[in-house]
Write a structure and sequence with these properties.
Layout: E1 7-12, H1 16-27, E2 31-37, H2 41-51, E3 54-55, H3 59-64, E4 69-72, H4 79-88, E5 93-96, H5 103-113, E6 120-123, H6 130-140, E7 147-155, H7 162-165, H8 171-187, E8 191-199, H9 204-208, E9 214-221, E10 226-232, E11 240-247, E12 251-254, H10 280-283, H11 285-299, H12 309-328, E13 332-333
Helix pairs in contact: 4-5, 5-12, 6-8, 8-12
């Protein structure tokens, strides 16, 4: 990238993920300027000062800058307005998932930007992780033979705050959607049917928000492959994200490294001396950097969009079907929730 023009990027939202993105962008080659803004101007100013990036007192000033791209890391309810505003202004967009808080909102954004040449890349960082990329190649090359089972896990060590859960959309839309997206991406297949259940054994605020702290999903893909997804907010051993692809000739396992928080009780097994990952940001640090690097390539017209709003919608449909299945206690075909 060093031979290409340096870019100016705006970043809306300086919470945890936004601040991490700002720090990553500051380190990337060919990024001349990072300009940050937040509804909490004092927070944005502090982040800008700490990281040595530029500060915009409000979003109007951010949009008035000569931006080559905009990274959106604000609360979900603001995503549609910011995506549309940027696209209408001709500014390429990277937006953390989801596109919107619900399917109708997502469809409205897709409909608005449908005929625009301005790219909108959605943040599903697992697509940029080396392990998931290797699993994709192993599956699609036929190295594993025909698949019979996929097992995915997203197990958080501690729950997020109660105020986050109340507006998260639930464990399937907020957390499981990453697994649904990556299953589609590594296999190239569609998810046809789901059966989901949930449980609450932790803090009361999950049930108060009509959510669950632990979920289990059985999926059926369009080629007959079965997949399971396990989710929890209470994996005390550490952050555990894995994908096991099991085939007639072999298997490929993502996330099985020295920092996987797995404790063998076999007497001859030695425990890894390395600490488990503490959070998704630590586990996927390299993937986030590669994802933002790809966005710069997308924004400057050198790379096709690797994750479109339509991709995000497909994963959201699966999450919606899971929520319906949990609530009604029945198997649900994904086609039933499509608009």
């Amino acid at each position: 990238m060093s031979s290409h023009r340096a870019v100016t990027l705006g970043l809306a939202g300086t919470g945890r993920i936004g601040t991490s993105h700002a720090a990553t962008l500051k380190r990337l080659p060919n990024v001349a300027t990072v300009l940050v803004a937040d509804a909490d101007a004092d927070r944005a100013r502090t982040v800008a000062t700490d990281l040595g990036v530029e500060f915009a007192p409000d979003l109007d000033i951010l949009f008035a800058a000569d931006l080559d791209g905009l990274i959106i890391a604000t609360t979900t309810d603001s995503h549609p307005e910011l995506i549309i505003r940027a696209v209408d202004a001709g500014i390429p967009v990277f937006c953390e998932k989801p596109v919107a808080a619900d399917i109708d909102g997502t469809l409205a954004v897709i409909d608005h930007i449908r005929n625009s040449p301005v790219p909108v890349q959605i943040g599903f960082q697992r697509r940029f992780d080396a392990g998931y990329r290797a699993a994709r190649e192993a599956i699609r090359s036929g190295k594993l033979g025909w698949l019979h089972t996929l097992r995915a896990t997203t197990l958080d060590p501690v729950p997020p705050p109660a105020e986050y859960i109340s507006r998260s959309g639930g464990i399937f839309r907020d957390c499981g959607v990453h697994d649904f997206d990556i299953i589609r991406w590594v296999t190239g297949r569609e998810i046809l049917e789901v059966c989901a259940i949930g449980a609450n054994r932790g803090a009361a605020f999950f049930a108060e928000a009509d959510d669950v702290d632990t979920g289990a999903v059985l999926l059926r893909l369009d080629d007959g492959v079965l997949a399971t997804v396990s989710l929890t907010r209470y994996n005390g051993a550490g952050y555990d994200v894995r994908l096991e692809a099991l085939g007639s000739k072999g298997n490929a396992i993502v996330g099985l490294d020295d920092r996987a928080p797995l404790t063998s009780v076999e007497p001859e097994h030695s425990r890894s001396p390395y600490p488990p990952y503490g959070s998704f940001m630590e586990r996927f640090r390299a993937a986030y950097a590669d994802e933002l690097t790809a966005f710069i390539e997308v924004a400057t017209g050198r790379l096709d969009n690797p994750c479109t709003p339509a991709d995000a919608l497909e994963a959201f449909y699966v999450a919606e079907a899971c929520e319906l299945s949990r609530r009604e206690g029945v198997r649900v075909k994904v086609a039933e929730v499509r608009r």
